[in-house]
From TrEMBL:
Transmembrane segments: none annotated. This is 550_t:CDS:1. It comes from the Eukaryota. Gene3D superfamilies: Ribonuclease Inhibitor. It comes from Dentiscutata erythropus. GO terms for cellular component: SCF ubiquitin ligase complex.
Length: 172
């Protein structure tokens, strides 16, 4: 297996650990907004996923500087790293700057506690989505389906690019 996406799922430590242990060839791992697991699977990433190229841990509340540092010290092939909306700070970013020599993309959107000084330590060739980046929503205020807020109440914004129906229109 080279691609594993467990985005937005309620997953146990045991399940993630078993998957990571039995699939050492994972190149892409996406655990965005996954809940119910602790730091144990994060440690398993450092032990079993040494071939990782793409790692996305956006909004994983269990992440700390310590675990990000362990990941970047073990997964030296990382080229794409997403840590948006995580509780990491300067220490983790400094380690990323030192250890992730192959990194091409780094997302730190909505991460607080990261100074501009530390951001300058990153390789200028890395495409960085900065902590202060804002998500911009399309303006559909002139649309006949829009409510008073200018957003359609029957649609939800997903991953910054796609609209997905989350409600049902009931006609007369």
């Amino acid at each position: 297996m080279v691609y594993l996406r467990l985005e937005g799922l309620k997953i146990s430590d045991v399940l993630i650990s078993m998957i990571l242990c039995s699939c050492p060839d994972i190149r892409t791992l996406i655990l965005d907004r996954s809940v119910s697991f602790s730091n144990i699977p994060i440690i398993e990433i450092t032990r079993f996923c040494l071939k990782l190229i793409h790692l996305s841990l956006n909004s994983c509340i269990c992440l700390t500087n310590r675990y990000i540092i362990e990941i970047v010290c073990s997964c030296l092939k990382l080229r794409h790293l997403e840590l948006g909306n995580c509780s990491i700070g300067n220490k983790a970013v400094e380690e990323i700057a030192c250890k992730c020599t192959n990194l091409k993309y780094l997302s730190l959107e909505k991460c607080v506690g990261i100074s501009e000084e530390v951001m300058k330590k990153l390789n200028p060739k890395i495409s960085v989505s900065k902590p202060s980046a804002k998500i911009e929503y399309p303006d559909y205020s002139d649309d006949i389906w829009s409510n008073s807020t200018g957003r359609n109440p029957y649609f939800g914004y997903i991953s910054g690019a796609n609209w997905v129906v989350i409600g049902m229109l009931i006609g007369n």
